[in-house]
Structure formats: structure tokens, C-alpha cells
User: Fold this.
Amino acid sequence: MRKIILEVAVSLDGLIEGPKGEYDWCFQDQDYGLSDFFKRVDALFMGRKSYEMMQGMSEAPAGFPKLKEYVFSTTLEKVKEGAVLIKKNIKKEVEKIKNEKGKDIWLFGGAGLTTSLMNLKLVDEISLAVHPLLLGGGKPLFSELTDRIPLKLVDTKTYSTGLISLTYHLEK
Amino acid sequence: MRKIILEVAVSLDGLIEGPKGEYDWCFQDQDYGLSDFFKRVDALFMGRKSYEMMQGMSEAPAGFPKLKEYVFSTTLEKVKEGAVLIKKNIKKEVEKIKNEKGKDIWLFGGAGLTTSLMNLKLVDEISLAVHPLLLGGGKPLFSELTDRIPLKLVDTKTYSTGLISLTYHLEK
Assistant:
């Protein structure tokens, strides 16, 4: 079955955005394992805000792979050609996608979608690129989880810039 | 000069307590480098709540070193014999203590004191015992920092239980 992988950059204090929505602190100077990660996935899950942010970009960031996009929103009525809008029955729809043939799925965020999928126990792996800074305020990676979630640390990778990548599997 | 070291257990989502103040998730099965850490310090900084919590314990946790205790509180009128109460002029008082002869100082918390000392740029090192779980809600390690704080990763240690210890120096 295809895995859902949350792969995201965080500050050491567990925030994904600064107080004004900033993500300019994310290191861009090297690959940080992303090109290997991109080989594993062929689909992207994102919430409405992430979708709208990416729509606002003139082109995809360099090295960004061609991915089948799934947009989760209760308010959008349509999404761009080729993308799939999921408005309801999240659990059923996501389980159907996971059972389809294909590579793994990149859960891109944001916090609301991530929290929903975590609470439905649909996420298989979490890979955090922990940046060496404290943002001190801003948006946490998760909003409210229903329960504690135990994790299994499966990999760590330290880079010369002080970024450390931590990969966990979710225990089922 | 003596260093102030924030050494604390956190969940992967950057929380130091669960939604009801729980810290039962902190691993107790092995030393996790604490006895080496205890050799480095001879003093303890803590806020009022941490002080009151420790006062409520019948005895110190096993292996807990003998430390000079400094309690930071604007509301307490006195503290136990041997301990020092700091009510105001935090920056001046802390700088004085840092300049005294002695080993390093353990900044124990809580979030309010930690945030104050971080904002005053008095903390020298942060060592987080990142536990392999998501608490999903509760108390963040820091409340509101005034500015972003860049860090320098100086050490990582991974344990068989999935706990990873991350040590950073604060750039001055």
C-alpha cells in the first residue's frame, strides 16, 4: 500500500511558519535529501491555503517533481485541471488513494489537513527538517491532536549547516 | 564565565507538558547523558511553578545532584533555606551569578523564565531530549520570544529508544 509521508521544515521550537507567516528561514543552499525523497513520491496532498499559495507562484520551485495533486477543502468548488478536489469523506477517499497503484504520497500540509489525517491515523511517516533556529512564535506543525501519538525513530541525518533531518514511523 | 544551559525534555512537537500538565511521557529507563550533565552544573535556575512542584516532592529524584537553587518570582516573599529568591533586576542579578566562581548553571524552566532569559540573551546552550512522540497539545518550550534566535548545532546523540538529544549553542 502507498504510504503517506509528512515531509516538512520546522524550527527547533516546532513551528512551520513565523508570526507573520514567514518561511524565509528555510535553508535553500543544498538539497537536504529532497531529491531522494522526490523519487519516492508521485502524489501531493495539500490543504486549501497551501494550494492557493502554490497557485500564486509563477512556476514550481526548482527540482520540484511532477506530482498528482490532491486538494482538501470544504470551501473550494473547483481546482485546476489535472488536480483532484476532495471535499468530504476524507477517510474513505484517502484510503482509496492509498490502495491505488503508485508511489508514496507527500503530505505537504498545512496544519489543519495534517492534523485531520493524523487524527484519522492515515499518516505513515514523518520526516522533519529541523532548522537550527527558534522562531519563538508562529504556526505549530500540528494544531490539536486527539491523542498522543507514539513514534518510532528510523533515521537521522545531520548536515554541516546544523540542519538535522529526523524520520519517524507511526506505530499502527 | 559560567554558562546557562537549558536542558529539558520535549516532545517532537516541541511541547514540555501535555494538555493537562502531564510529564509522564518522559523516559526514565536510562540515564540519557544526565549524569554527565550533572557533573557540569552546580546551580539551578527555576521559576515559581517549578519551585513549588519540586517543593511538593518528598525527596529529590534519584541521581539528582546537590545544586544551589535560584528561584525567579515576582510574587513569592521567601523561599526555603539555602535557596535564593530573585524578584527583580533579572539581567543584573543573573550576570552577577554568571560572573561568580562556579560550575555551569542548569536552567530548569518553566516556559516563562526560559523566555525571559532567552529574550535577555543570557542563555548559552540549549540541550533538548527530543522524545519520540507527539503530545499534540500542551505547553510549548517557549512562550513568546521577541526575536528569532539562530542556533549552532554542536552535538547529537541517538538512543536505542528513539530519544535523540540535540545540543545547540546560542550565537552571540
Q: What stands out?
A: The first strand of chain B starts at residue 4 and ends at 11. Chain B touches chain A at residues 12-15, 18, 25, 118, 126, 128, 130, 132-137, 140-142, 144-153, 156, 158, 162-164, 166, 168 (CB under 8 Å). Residues 32 and 159 of chain B are 8 Å apart (CA to CA). The longest helix of chain B spans residues 90-99.
